[in-house]
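Intended use. Records like the one below are meant for learning the mapping from a protein sequence to its folded structure. Do not use them to infer anything beyond what is encoded.
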Amino acid sequence: MLVLVSYDVSTETSAGRRRLRRVAKICLNHGQRVQKSVFECRVDQAQLETLKFQLLDEINEAEDNLRIYRIPEPLGKHVMEFGRFRATDFDDTLIV
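Structure written out for the chain above:
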C-alpha cells in the first residue's frame, strides 16, 4: 500500500530541530521525500505499524503534528502530479 506521511515539527528549540531530523530520517528509511515534510512510503501493514510507532516515539504531541494518509489503489486514478518532481515508481524496474 502507498501511504503519505506529512508532519510539522516545532523547531523553536534545539530539541525540536533534533526531532525534525529524526522524523525525516525515519521517513527516508521507509519511502521517498516528495516535499520538504511530505513522504510517500510503500509499505505493508506490518511496516506501516512500525513506521507509525517509530514516528509517534519521536514527535512531541503537544508541539508537533503528524498525519498519515493511505492512498487507495489504483494510484493512477487517485494521484495527480504537476511540476518538475517525479516520484520513483517502485513497481517499475529500478536500475542502481
